[in-house]
Design goal:
Largest interface: A-D, 44 and 44 residues
Number of domains of chain A: 1
Helix content of chain A: 25-40%
Largest sheet of chain A: 7 strands, parallel
Oligomer: homotetramer
CATH architecture of chain A: 3-Layer(aba) Sandwich
Shape of chain A: globular
Number of helices of chain A: 6
CATH class of chain A: Alpha Beta
Strand content of chain A: 15-25%
Number of strands of chain A: 7
């Protein structure tokens, strides 16, 4: 693969992150960020064995120093490459409890993981994405955020989770308005349903109907579509949900 | 082309309708509906000369009888084919005036063209789209609506236009919730900007910046993406706008 | 009552319209519009017996001629008075059916009653409301619309109803943006729940809990609050629902 | 004043907080929380000189210990009183900069002040508000949040501010859904414009038009209306803006 561009995906594991990595690896070398190497080593192998190029870097996106270190390593390992796409797919800080049982630490964990993590990731990637605008990229440089139902709707028992997700959406919307006119496509995706991954195999959702859980590969297809949109026709936000989901 | 499916596009002319027709014609025979044959004859020729299959039918979507007649003709001309995709791209009834200068006829024209037209089109196509669900379609049968900024935002001087567009969005959202679980993908697209077509060549928008008008081919790409989404991951609504558009 | 202003309420009956009429009649003479005199005669009596002033006029708001005639009669009966508040509380055209069982007439009934009715009412009242801006009104002249859940959300089986309600909201939002800067307060209220009126006595909603249906007097209190808002602090939209309602 | 209830307002100063305090002090003893006593001493005096009852407590709502200490002091000073209304009007953490000039500390300041502050305040007040439900309160116990345009809209240069405001709205919406059915009214107010306070005297907004800035007394009137809404008819969210504001 001779692309002079690369993509970086923060928050890879067995679901959306893996599918997005595989999808973008069809065109670009990809860098996979996750706190735990066990989350990316198999995906790196899988991409390499298909003839792609992939690097995994242990990174805590909620820690600015860890993010800075990751991007220094990227610069060393992919010295001549420009950034084509950055995907933020981190989603920790998930406490589901009645509000009066939540601790201040539940809120700060959600905010640090979601808003803080995205802030650090966006600050690290936007200068590179801006630089790519003038480097004849095949598609407009793109920053994509994985959101959730809780990004647009607060619910009983989901207060702190929604706070983190709403905050990320606020950042994403602000960045779309600031960096869109500079040629960087910032998009936010509301994933409204349960994703079909090993961890959710046992869940019965939507009455157990076939395709009642979201295929992570299907999510990746929409991310790729967002990335390839012409700059005269950017989508800022779209929703994704199983055909059987009530919404 | 041996597809046993076809697509129908209502509201073709020099812009989005033409691009969508060309895009879907790469895979399906396409039927083009417009009141005035001059709006589709060139597109039909263009598709045929590229090896595609196309039929134009003079149709007034705001008239149930005209729509019924069109679909009878389709049944005759494409007797064995199932409906894969139906696109409603009609947008007449556009009066821009201070409210107290508007006439009741401005309101009824907007409602008849937008809400009435889409109602007729949806009633004519949904039974066929439902029938296609079990006919092993390559992609989930799809009904796509072209919306506008005025679909989600009323503005001074745009009162009746917004009324028509809001009403269509209401219908689309209702149909997404009713027919999604039955396997038909209903999607609404908010086109937020000026489309780059012959009629708008003279318009200076977004300070005349390159790609400051929306490419209709780019819109068509997003419609095709919507059509090809896996049923576990349907988008109900997305926005499209030039990178320089304020929103 | 010596007010030189009056209020007009379209769509009175046993619920919101009656309560709003009684509330505004504490300050202004009120004009009650309904198609059927049986909907307003008792309310007129009730207001008069409390020392208020009220007139009922048989009016079909979906018919521009009927509306024009009503306002000519108002001019004769209240010759020196300016319009302080106009409330549109009409809600016919309510068909609840699967989409493919709906008729074109269901759509046109909803659009004519809701969008058409409000259009006619707004065209008849806005010139008077504008004239009141400079007539030292006690509160900014106000136009209030009763909306519903279906004003902001399409649902299976509610397609044509939602179309009518969305369209009214589009008109209201457009008018708020056009007439707000001219000093007329246009507000839209989303009534999200079942109203506690004689017709709904038998309905079990929200598990039959006390105050699980909306008190029409409570709605009227919020309408009065909207009317009395200072022009530096207008509300364009608010929601009203029982404390037990899921939303 | 013999009310067995009291109200608490967090974030008082020269604007909304002061007006809300004066408004609620007409009915209840009020407790004013602000970091700096200079923000409440004059208001406490003003209320007392009008025959009301007021206490000021130096409190940093972003610090759980400071909030806990404040509520212990309240319990001592108003030993027999139940909480009728709690208003969160805190709005620090306001950095307006291009995103790449923002520091991680700008984000954490906004999140700590807005989301963290509201979290602490809600955790401290909700048990008391719940307890008041059964204490025959004159109105449903109420928790009101002051929001802003940035609560529902991200903008270039306002990324971290919007993140904090979106997060508070997420918490408020979640609490409305959890505590509404328990009888506590949680409402979020979107203040969309510049408030007319000493600090903004020099600002020219809305072309300097009269009443082009929001009267804080008018805001307080709407807060009082929210507090007095019947539990069958709660508003969860409303917007407030000058009649001349574009929105």
């Amino acid at each position: 693969m001779a692309s002079k561009f690369y993509a970086v995906i923060a928050g890879v594991g067995a679901g959306t992150g893996r599918s997005v990595a595989l999808r973008f690896a069809q065109t670009y070398p990809v860098v996979l960020l996750a706190r735990n190497p066990s989350n990316y080593t198999d995906i790196v192998s899988e991409i390499k064995s298909s003839g792609g190029q992939a690097i995994g870097i242990s990174t805590d996106t909620s820690d600015p120093a860890s993010v800075a270190s990751a991007f220094e390593q990227i610069k060393k390992e992919l010295p001549e490459k420009n950034l084509a796409a950055a995907i933020f797919n981190v989603g920790a800080g998930f406490a589901v409890k009645p509000f009066l049982e939540l601790q201040a630490s539940d809120l700060s964990a959600s905010l640090a993981s979601n808003a803080g993590g995205f802030f650090n990731f966006a600050q690290a990637t936007l200068p590179s994405l801006l630089a790519s605008v003038n480097a004849s990229p095949p598609h407009p440089p793109t920053l994509i955020i994985t959101g959730a139902t809780a990004s647009v709707r607060g619910s009983a028992r989901f207060a702190t989770f929604a706070a983190g997700k709403f905050a990320v959406r606020a950042l994403g919307q602000s960045l779309a308005r600031e960096f869109g006119p500079q040629g960087v496509h910032v998009a936010h995706v509301i994933v409204d349903g349960v994703i079909d991954i090993p961890r959710t195999k046992g869940y019965t959702v939507n009455d157990g109907k076939e395709d009642g859980k979201i295929s992570p590969d299907a999510i990746a297809d929409s991310y790729w579509h967002l990335h390839t949109q012409h700059r005269s026709s950017f989508t800022q936000e779209l929703d994704l949900r199983p055909f059987v989901e009530k919404f």
